[in-house]
Amino acid sequence: MSMIARVLAGARARWSLDENETRFVTEAERVFAPAPSGEGTRRVLVQMPPDYQCVIKFGAAVREFGGGNVANNVECVGLWHQSVMSAPREETMQGLRREVRKVLNWLDFRKWKRLYHAIGARRFVTLRPSVSVRRANWQEAGRIWQGLTSKDDVLAIMLNGTPCGDLIYDTYLRYRIQPTVDLADPFLRRLIAQALDAQHAIRAHLKEGRFERFFTNYSSYIQHGIPVREALRAGVEVFACGNLTQVYKRLTLEDWLHTEAHWHYGERFAALADKDTARATAEAELQKRFAGAIDRATAYMKSSAYAANASGALPAGVEGVVYLHDFFDSPHCYRSMVFPDYDAWARFTAKTIVEHNLPIAIKPHPNQLPESALVVQKLKAEFPSVTFLDPKLPNNIIFKAGIKCGISIYGTVLSELAYHGIAALAAGDNPHVDFDICIDATSVEDYREKLIGFRDLKAPANAKEQVLEFYYTHQFMHHDDLQVDFGPLDVMRLPVNQSIALKTVVESYPPLVRAGGGKA
What we know:
It is built from 18 helices and 13 strands. By secondary structure, the chain is of the alpha/beta class. The strands form 3 sheets. It has a 6-stranded mixed beta sheet, with helices on both faces. A 5-stranded parallel beta sheet has the order 10-9-11-12-13, with helices on both faces. The model is unreliable at 516-520 (pLDDT under 50).
């Protein structure tokens, strides 16, 4: 097959419905019939991520909203929110590539529109306002951009009364594919303008539609976070379906993060009647992780950070390990961070290691993007005296080597370190804060002092018990804010990027897509 033929075949596969998708559409459209509009109609807005798990979760939630029958005076509107285009800084012919991406985005919309139409969406809107509005927003974005003097200024950006700085910051990192924000980069102005565009568009939709509920996968980045925050300000019930522990999380003006409200974990565990059994269950499951299994909390990993038949060794003299994050993940997915981004943290940490000759090594994230690996290469060149470990070096080898401390901003590894009696230093809000597990730095200077004195840091005496309580709460005490019966289907285990998820729904739980099945 020629290269052109392969490209065309790949395009057809990406933008045409495959067998599983076609079957799902055929089955689902019998249930998600058009709803009447007019007086008494209830409206629900759903974002349209190209995510099979979301199609299923949103479809079930829309059916539940209609009491098991979407035609029961429920109008569903789809929000195509893919408004931000990737623009790598090193890329040539960026204008041409941006136009090509717009075409690809339109082709994606054509396909996913059919899938979301199958779950009830009969009208579709975007985050793109009129040309005149965009021109005005471009001018306003220029005024805001020119007034920025620090990264903290970016994080503090308010747009018409709504905090949007963290969303703009994280969108820059991911779509500019840069580890930190460059205040002089015109792309930052473009993102501020797109944030204003998204805000104007979603406010118009909310005013027009008077939606009662809004479903999204995430609340990070411009295209997710701004609709979420504006919907909440408009009094709309908002549910996110993007974290690894909850099918549906109700967001509020006090908590609009899609990550679970971990600061309630302690009281949740305290309410258990049989705590000993819970700890025993947690220990049995945690041992599986240490043996190399992937559990729900680590489902994002391509491979385990532990290995049953581990090989390799920690370099002699290493007494601590810094566990890097992927530099292009959304860093502001929790309530606070000591540093503005992962790059600032990594560089500050490496510089402190060099200045004080600390026997601390750095381990890159084993699941990082290729672009993140390039950032690590630059760090290695800038700090040649610092020891960088193989990202695939198993953690069980590192732990057994007798390190005294592990460092992360908020990673899963923090509880794993504490379980093994190793001090865990955190540099931001993290899922473990309701338990006595981590040593939490409260400022840059506090972090510096704790890093320099890492040998004096100690894991709490009851750290293992605390980790078991955290793990049980995080893994087993799932608190869904919307009760939707999926029957025997474990919707959280369905693949996100493979259409086999739709086939599983059709064959394993027909009531979700076939008439006469009752309430979904």
